[in-house]
Specification:
By secondary structure, this protein is α+β, with helices and mostly antiparallel strands. Helix content is 52%, strand content 8%. The protein has a 5-stranded mixed sheet, covered by helices on one side. The longest helix is centred in the middle third of the chain and has 69 residues. It is rod-shaped. The two termini are 58 Å apart.
Length: 445
């Protein structure tokens, strides 16, 4: 149905453009025809023969009209328009009728041929050049006082009109190509953005569900808690997928933006990781400030993907999430103490961190993911804030350093929305993961 609607739209759009062009050319042709019979404008017309003038008669009126009226079709049939106007002009000059303003139609027809003729452009110009040569020979035979330089200068004027129209046609073609390429680039960027969103949503939640399902096989009577955690994770995944589907509907509504994940949801990601058996500690420094939706979403995805990788490659190892709120940027660091060469428990596509780097780079930020010198892995992102409006609050904020600290004397670390877990959460190994699937163990800090 959408395809049929698009075809109908393009059909009527083409009809509208054709009708608009016809009306515009019709007004031009009518105006030129009327001005062709205004005596005071007759000296402005094109003159080539310079032969003794003969009185105007009915044929002169017909030839005057024939040099102007065909311009009504100059956009749709430029070749036919040029041939009719050119033949009328040649006869008008050869018969030595009085000069008329309608002869300007020859210049306009040449311009239209250059601007609108798509096929046989060179053949058309060769034909018109041959016709011009025949006309000059006839005029010389009739006694025209003009010589070769005069005829050549007139021909150059005609060529300039033709080239001007050709330049306009090329410019339109290049502009259309630029618009097409721009649309393709925009579509590719949108596809890449949606692919990153789907990767982040599906990979994180499915990874957590797989780990929770594996653990549920070993907890015996507590399997109900593990299944509840899997159900909760599935609901989160469906919620975010519904948001993406709302974006893909392309209805032009901006109301879906408020449903995008924000930095305030980081606590839920941490809680979900704990339910998967990953001991995670969340620490925030500074006061939260209003940020742009794209900044909030990027920060959320950084934490989400980093915890997903920690669950894959360093399951059961202590993990730390540190968020620093600054006036003009966000600083996020996720570290774990696990081995960097461990085999992932869940197959990895290898594109999560790459997508994160592209996402952060589009916001003029920077993301570094690398192994730590003493073991483990670190993901650190610095994301500038596009919203420069900062609400009044405390005069002091967390220090703008790039290293993870345990706290700040002016702004102690805090846990957003969930108590930060301690590394005392039981770690798991690949053979016998032991944990409480329903209630994460850990002390509030």
């Amino acid at each position: 149905m959408l395809a049929n609607g698009a075809r109908i739209f393009r059909f009527w759009q083409g009809r509208w453009r054709a009708a608009h062009s016809f009306v515009k050319d019709g007004v031009l042709a009518a105006g030129l025809t009327l001005m062709g019979f205004v005596p005071t404008l007759s000296t402005i017309g094109a003159q080539l023969a310079d032969l003794p003038k003969r009185p105007a008669d009915a044929l002169a009126v017909v030839l005057t009209v024939a040099q102007a009226v065909p311009l009504v079709a100059r956009s749709r049939w430029p070749a036919a328009c040029l041939m009719v106007v050119g033949a009328a002009f040649a006869l008008h000059q050869a018969l030595s009728y009085p000069q008329t303003f309608a002869s300007i139609g020859l210049y306009l027809a040449l311009y239209a041929a250059g601007a609108h003729q798509v096929r046989y452009r060179r053949g058309l110009m060769a034909l018109m050049t041959a016709g011009y040569v025949v006309l000059t020979v006839v005029l010389v035979g009739l006694g025209s006082p003009n010589r070769a330089p005069d005829f050549f200068a007139f021909y150059l004027a005609l060529v300039v009109c033709r080239l001007t129209g050709g330049g306009l046609r090329r410019w339109r073609a290049e502009e259309a190509e630029r618009r097409r390429l721009g649309a393709e680039v925009a579509m590719a960027a949108e596809r890449a953005r949606i692919a990153r969103e789907l990767h982040d949503v599906v990979t994180h939640h499915v990874t957590a569900m797989v780990v929770q399902a594996d653990a549920a096989r070993y907890v015996g009577g507590e399997a109900g808690g593990g299944l509840a955690a899997i159900s909760d994770t599935g609901r989160r995944a469906l919620t975010e997928l519904r948001h993406l589907l709302g974006v893909l509907e392309a209805t032009g509504e901006s109301a879906v933006a408020h449903r995008a994940p924000t930095l305030s949801g980081v606590g839920e990601i941490v809680e979900q990781a704990r339910l998967s058996g990953q001991p995670v500690e969340l620490t925030e420094h500074g006061d939260r400030r209003p940020r742009g939706a794209d900044v909030e979403l990027a920060a959320y995805r950084v934490v989400q993907e980093a915890l997903t990788n920690a669950i894959k490659h360093a399951a059961g190892q202590p993990t730390t999430v540190t968020v620093r709120h600054h006036d003009d940027h966000l600083e996020i660091e996720v570290t774990n103490d696990g081995p960097t060469d461990a085999l992932p428990r869940v197959p990895s596509g290898g594109r999560g961190l790459t997508g994160l780097k592209e996402r952060v780079r589009m916001l003029d930020g920077d993301l570094v993911a690398a192994a730590r010198p003493h073991g483990g892995f670190s993901v650190r992102a610095l994301i500038p804030s596009r919203n420069t409006t900062v609400p009044s609050g405390n005069a002091t904020h967390a220090p703008k350093d790039a290293t993870v600290s345990s706290g700040n004397k002016t702004h102690p670390s805090r846990n957003a929305s969930v108590p930060s877990g301690s590394p005392a959460v039981p770690s798991r190994n690949a053979t016998n993961p032991s944990r409480n699937a329903a209630v994460p163990s850990g002390n509030a800090t």
